[in-house]
Design goal:
The chain has 6 helices and 7 strands, in the order βααβαβααβαβββ. By secondary structure, the protein is an alpha/beta fold. It has a single domain, classed as Rossmann fold. The protein is globular, with a radius of gyration of 16 Å. The two termini are 16 Å apart.
Length: 196
């Protein structure tokens, strides 16, 4: 179960491999110039939000994105190792073709890869570990880790998460509404991307 507290989630800025559709997995790919610009733009949106803790994946693309946020907010970064992207074994670095959809559906496991179920479970553990820190917490990680949030918060999987756009998540309010999430746009937030 996803810990029922409000938090922010940010996928890392763009990498060249994101741009060309190559799977990264746990390969340590750097941000490209667009990704650095995206991370800098996001930092300006976070200042008024009262973020108390920044937790990050150790992979360079997420960590560099987190460093830019931490510098703007004057906060340290706490590394949560399990926030790493999915391990795709021998398929890391390859184009995202049918094999990837088969892996996500649980029909195929590349040699040396995590199963999708093991990855989703790891993602939930990692997010919940981050949410044990003083909040509100900003988690900076990967698109794949976000699948765990989607699954456990009941957010439609048709909503992906854009590079370097912080998204606020609020737990169910007890009045029948489920988790709510909204992208942080400009210096304030709104633009709901999922409510159940």
């Amino acid at each position: 179960m996803l810990k029922p507290v409000s938090f922010y989630y940010m996928r890392h800025g763009q990498t060249e491999w994101n741009r060309i559709g190559r799977t990264q997995g746990q390969l340590d790919v750097e941000l490209n110039e667009t990704g650095l610009a995206q991370a800098r733009a996001a930092a300006g949106r976070l200042e008024p939000l009262g973020i108390a803790t920044i937790c990050s994946s150790p992979l360079k693309r997420a960590l560099r994105t987190a460093e830019i946020q931490a510098e703007a907010l004057g906060l340290p970064i706490e590394i949560v190792d399990e926030l790493k992207e999915c391990g795709l074994g021998e398929m890391e670095g390859r184009p995202r073709t049918d094999w990837f959809d088969d892996w996500r559906a649980g029909r195929f496991v590349p040699p040396g890869a995590e199963t999708i179920d093991a990855f989703i479970a790891r993602g939930l553990r990692a997010v919940n570990a981050a949410l044990e820190r003083p909040g509100p917490v900003l988690i900076v990680a990967h698109g794949g880790i976000y699948w765990s949030i989607q699954r456990h918060a009941g957010i439609a999987a048709t909503h992906g998460i854009t590079n370097a756009v912080p998204v606020r998540h609020d737990p169910p309010d007890g009045a029948g509404a489920g988790w709510r999430c909204a992208a942080v746009i400009e210096a304030a937030w709104e633009t709901t991307i999922g409510t159940l």
